[in-house]
Amino acid sequence: MVTFSLERTAPLSPDEAWRRLTEWPRHGRVVPLTRVTVVTDPPTRRGTLFVARSGLGPLVFDDVMEVTVWRPPRDGVPGLCRLDKRGRVIRGWAEIEVRPGPGGRARVVWREELRVRLVPALFDGLVRRAARSVFGRAVNQLLRTA
Asked: Which range marks the domain in which residue 43 is found?
């Protein structure tokens, strides 16, 4: 099991940062070799299901996620989204927190716990570094592009 967190400050309102981070199909455009499909009808809410299909050729896997907490930011109160990962290969959870930051900017905290099936704990350090790199770049790109 691997846990990590990322923090970013973006020159966006908390509402705009939230919108950019929680438009699930956009994640597929910034995570290499991944396509995201929302399974349930919009809008996103508690119970929303989506699948991130990653891989190439015959080596693909589905990262099935369910929104279990959905509290968009409002009136200076931080927003929180929790995703429970329920795929056959990847388990765990992710939390996206968006709060007002300095100078009207948005402060984002992304926390995640990953369990990758059939990958022994010996490789946790490698998985942690790879996950921080992939998700860090994805968060940066999501926040940068409208």
From this structure: 2-144
Q: Name the residue among 20, 54, 22, 52 with its Cα closest to residue 37.
A: 52
| Phi/psi-derived region of residue 121, left when phi > 0, alpha when psi is between -120 and 50, beta in every other case | alpha
Q: Tens digit of pLDDT for each residue in 103-117?
A: 989 999 999 999 999
CA distance 66 to 51: 9
Residue type, 130: A
pLDDT digits (tens, 9 = 90+) for 67-93: 999 999 998 899 999 999 999 999 999
- Please report, for the domain that includes residue 29, its CATH number: 3.30.530.20
Q: What amino acid is encoded at 141 in this protein?
A: Q
b/e per residue, 52-62, with b = 16+ CB within 10 A?
Answer: bbbeeeeeeeb
The domain tally of the chain equals 1
